[in-house]
Give the backbone structure.
Amino acid sequence: MNITSYKAHQRTLVAVDCIIFGFDGSDLQALIIKRGFEPEKGKWSLMGGFIREKENADEAAARILYQLTGLENIYMEQLYAFTDINRDSAARVISIAYFALINIRDYSEQLALEHEAHWFPINELPPLVFDHDKMVAKAKRLLQRKVATHPIGFELLPEKFTLPQLQSLYEAIYETPLDKRNFTRKILSLGILNKLNEKEKESSRRGAYYYVFDSVKYGKMQSNGVKFI
Amino acid sequence: MNITSYKAHQRTLVAVDCIIFGFDGSDLQALIIKRGFEPEKGKWSLMGGFIREKENADEAAARILYQLTGLENIYMEQLYAFTDINRDSAARVISIAYFALINIRDYSEQLALEHEAHWFPINELPPLVFDHDKMVAKAKRLLQRKVATHPIGFELLPEKFTLPQLQSLYEAIYETPLDKRNFTRKILSLGILNKLNEKEKESSRRGAYYYVFDSVKYGKMQSNGVKFI
DNA sequence: TCAAAAGTGTTCTAGATACACCCATGT
DNA sequence: ACATGGGTGTATCTAGAACACTTTTGA
């Protein structure tokens, strides 16, 4: 029956773990740290931490992302709560996983050094502690699903980017080649990119025009439901 | 820095709350209880409970669903972890919400009585305690998204169902009318329904053929990605 | 015989796919 | 001059949307 007092119930440690995605121009990558405390100290791990008394999970995730990257206002989203009894070898800990997207050039190298953090291509990750491999796999699937209908790919790129860069990003996320003409036609037809009068000249002699994402234009079309790719 | 001992950290009550969907032939409904304990005793609420030491969240949700419906092996899925500091007025409690789909004819009336449970059309719910309204809203959105690409609508129907029943179900979930000819053509073209040599004669003189979902056929086509509607 | 729901095809439109050549520029 | 990556258009195919009449049968 339903007569219950809160007092009688078990309390549990609640953690947050973050899958941090970046894009280096050709590969989708994840930022992984060497775990700094026991158990499993020194092994590869997602960045995480326990939820504090005065913060919710979103705030905890933002704090943890800030600790590792020095960045605020990172795009992030709750992924899934991992609750298996023995998922952590030291105690019953449930972990709410978040995935985050950052521009790989923006993070603090200083902080990354302190945490012994490294970027790995998403398909070449070393084995991670606990159930963190499962978290990464789930995050990758969610990213693939989400990026098809929401304008979040831009979070992985600099403010200014070229269409070839954007195409490479989608190709890395979907792990499939895309047709250049079809891609540019579709993405431009959405009417949410503004072309700049400026070219990126690093990667080709001819140079490729820069574009920026126009969130105002995107906001106006929202209601129709947006299919990106 | 990352030197941390688990001991130092705050432990939290972790609950599970279940959004239980049913379908009465014309409306998508949710099963709601009168909360049987303080705080907010006597108010409308989702069915929930605390996670026990020896179970994960899926097991807790299955247990809670069994307590209210008497059913086992219910289709259910984790929805989201709700973690706001003051979401529960009595204590810091995080709640992992699950949504579940059942055949509305199968639940135990006896157990429902004991919990003072009632079915409400999803758009005519009374106000619920805490953040349960938010949970229901999120569950409804997830159901709409999920049912478009996964064969889960059948969970809300009896084993044998007619095409008009199935169409009504999709119309209730999407809250939009569908064209009968387009609907039947599309759903039958998936090749995952088996037509029975038997008619449902309650709702029309002519009678409508029964169909059953063929999960083996569905399993074989999985890889291609399935768009239901 | 009629009321009420089941069943059934065709046309049109829009979006997705497939596909190849010229352009600009630094070396 | 040439090598490298950037930029562009058309034809075909497929899936989705729109749309109305006939069939069955119990009362």
In short: The interface with chain A takes residues 1-6, 9-14, 33, 35-37, 49-58, 78, 80-81, 83-85, 90-94, 96, 114-115 of chain B (CB under 8 Å). Chain B has two domains: 10-146, 151-224. Residues 151-224 of chain B form a domain with the Arc Repressor Mutant, subunit A fold (CATH 1.10.10.10). Strands of chain B lie at 11-23, 28-34, 44-45, 47-50, 75-82, 93-101, 118-121, 161-162, 193-200, 208-213.
